[in-house]
Amino acid sequence: MAQKTFESALRRLEQITTELEEGELPLEKSLKKFDEGISLVSFCSEKLEEARLRVDLLLKKDNNLTTVPFEDEVDDGGGA
């Protein structure tokens, strides 16, 4: 069996989401798909955290860790 990657897990999660949104699965199958989706979300979250830690290491300068947080929202210049 091939090793699971972030990209393959994300594709599978998108497929599960589509299947659940269609609403045509019996309850028991929907619950199994939902459970699989939760596992995939956890896997993807772990992979993203690993990537964040690697980026932090790459940003290390002069023995000081300098991190730049990703912005939650892109500032489009519009005011609220």
Automatic annotation (TrEMBL):
<keyword id="KW-0378">Hydrolase</keyword>
<keyword id="KW-0963">Cytoplasm</keyword>
<dbReference type="InterPro" id="IPR003761">
    <property type="entry name" value="Exonuc_VII_S"/>
</dbReference>
<dbReference type="GO" id="GO:0008855">
    <property type="term" value="F:exodeoxyribonuclease VII activity"/>
</dbReference>
<dbReference type="GO" id="GO:0009318">
    <property type="term" value="C:exodeoxyribonuclease VII complex"/>
</dbReference>
<dbReference type="GO" id="GO:0005829">
    <property type="term" value="C:cytosol"/>
</dbReference>
<dbReference type="InterPro" id="IPR037004">
    <property type="entry name" value="Exonuc_VII_ssu_sf"/>
</dbReference>
<keyword id="KW-0269">Exonuclease</keyword>
<comment type="function">
    <text>Bidirectionally degrades single-stranded DNA into large acid-insoluble oligonucleotides, which are then degraded further into small acid-soluble oligonucleotides.</text>
</comment>
<comment type="subunit">
    <text>Heterooligomer composed of large and small subunits.</text>
</comment>
<protein>
    <recommendedName>
        <fullName>Exodeoxyribonuclease 7 small subunit</fullName>
        <ecNumber>3.1.11.6</ecNumber>
    </recommendedName>
</protein>
<keyword id="KW-0540">Nuclease</keyword>
<comment type="similarity">
    <text>Belongs to the XseB family.</text>
</comment>
<dbReference type="GO" id="GO:0006308">
    <property type="term" value="P:DNA catabolic process"/>
</dbReference>
<dbReference type="Pfam" id="PF02609">
    <property type="entry name" value="Exonuc_VII_S"/>
</dbReference>
